[in-house]
Specification:
83% of the residues lie in helices and 0% in strands. By secondary structure, the chain is an all-alpha fold. The chain folds into 2 domains: 1-6 and 15-211, no CATH class; 226-420, no CATH class.
């Protein structure tokens, strides 16, 4: 089991390294060619379509992953979960397309960037085609790595050849979208080649049950979006594309840094989910180890981001983005806070069946962000949005820690005779 976990961590680490390095190659180019205004429109469109992807993913990326992890040796059960989830996602995707069409016809802000929005929408199709949740549950993350790396290496270089001016923003958006679609097609090919599933037609009741099962996780991810994805959209409506450009540029740097712990977190989740059903002491031991490694590493990353913000912005973005320095400094300690809340929420609360409390914490935090974001964004623009996100991430982390302590869940201390 340990070998399999290490193999998955290695596969995801390779993918994450590429996901961090390739944007570091193309992002500075896009920032300079598009400028803050058009880059802001690019980020706004991505944020909006990310909401549609969130709808399509529903709560399946965690709920279905857990079911797959517990049915790893049952091909029929795996196949039923797969097809039920895919059909449920496809239904939501149709609704998302209708929403986008209505938006680009009636909403002025959407009409203004219509070509960019349409070029970004294929990400939704890629979200259906690319069943990362299945490979994650089966602990076959090497397939995820092969699919994503192949797509990125094939398409990302096109940015340098086809994106030459701010008017090419829609082309940049399309290249990014088709990377996800291509990765999905490669994943489907590998899925069929390895015969990981067979066709099983689920009933309507099973699809409805999948929606019920993923509801709390969906509410949680939707709540998280209120203090992540929503910021760019609200900034776009309240302040304009330039502020979104500053905020989005700093946020992408922060995300790249934060992504360093993604492979460990994603690889550990299915293993922890299985261990909590097999050996709870081993599960707690693994979670404690992940918490110490992950939070320690991300504290160092956060300190580097804060200390080197000026140098990072100057090197990665250019003089047009000088206003993003203070934004990045406000965001610097978010990776450390997220590394803590990821363990508290994803690796502990969900596997232990605390879905309702998990959702409650994130909904409260999301509402808190909206309440603080609007006045801060109006007063301080991109900097105000960064302040709001930092305060919200701190609230999430403290709220989860207090709940786990109240429930006497052993996190940093060895487990005694206490049962959660």
């Amino acid at each position: 089991m340990r070998r399999l976990l290490l193999k998955n961590v290695l596969a995801l680490s390779t993918l994450q390294a590429a996901n961090m390095l390739l944007p570091l190659v193309t992002l500075p180019y896009l920032l300079r060619v598009l400028g803050p205004d058009h880059f802001g429109a690019y980020v706004f469109a991505q944020a909006l379509v990310t909401y549609l992807v969130l709808l399509v993913d529903y709560g399946f990326n965690l709920s279905a992953t857990g079911h797959i992890a517990r049915a790893q040796n049952d091909l029929n059960a795996i196949s039923k979960i797969f097809w039920t989830t895919q059909i449920a996602k496809a239904v939501i995707a149709l609704a998302a397309l209708v929403f986008l069409i209505i938006g680009i016809i009636w909403i002025p802000k959407f009409i203004e960037i219509r070509p960019i929005l349409l070029a970004t929408f294929p990400i939704v199709i890629g979200a259906i085609l690319f069943p990362q949740w299945l490979f994650q549950g089966l602990e076959r993350m090497s397939i995820v790595t092969i699919s994503m790396l192949s797509a990125r290496f094939l398409l990302v270089p096109l940015t340098f050849f086809l994106v030459r001016s701010p008017e090419d923003t829609w082309i940049a958006a399309l290249i990014n979208s088709m990377t996800m679609v291509s990765a999905g097609l490669i994943a489907v090919f590998l899925l069929a080649k390895n015969r990981l599933v067979v066709f099983v037609l689920p009933s309507r009741g099973e699809v409805i049950e999948a929606y019920r099962d993923g509801w709390h996780v969906f509410i949680s991810t939707a709540a998280v979006s209120l203090y992540t994805t929503a910021n760019s959209i609200i900034l776009g409506f309240l302040v304009g594309n330039v502020a979104v450009g500053y905020f989005g540029a700093a946020d992408k740097i922060r995300n790249a840094a934060e992504g360093a712990f993604g492979p460990l977190a994603n690889a550990v989740y299915p293993r922890v989910s299985a261990l909590f059903h097999e050996n709870i002491d081993q599960a707690y031991a693994l979670v404690r180890k992940v918490l110490l490694i992950q939070s320690g590493a991300m504290l160092v990353v956060s300190l580097v981001l804060f200390a080197c913000a000026d140098w990072i912005v100057r090197l990665a973005m250019g003089p047009q983005y000088e206003a993003a320095v203070v934004v990045l400094r406000w965001m610097a300690f978010i990776p450390f806070l997220v590394s803590l809340s990821n363990v508290f929420g994803i690796q502990l609360m969900l596997p232990l069946g605390m879905k309702k409390k998990f959702s409650e914490i994130l909904v409260v935090s999301g509402v808190f962000n909206l309440i603080t974001l609007i006045p801060l964004a109006l007063a301080y623009g991109a900097q105000g949005a960064a302040m709001s996100v930092l305060a919200t991430e701190l609230l999430v982390t403290i709220y989860m820690a207090i709940h786990l302590i109240n429930q006497k869940i052993p996190v940093l201390t060895p487990r005694t005779s206490i049962d959660p």
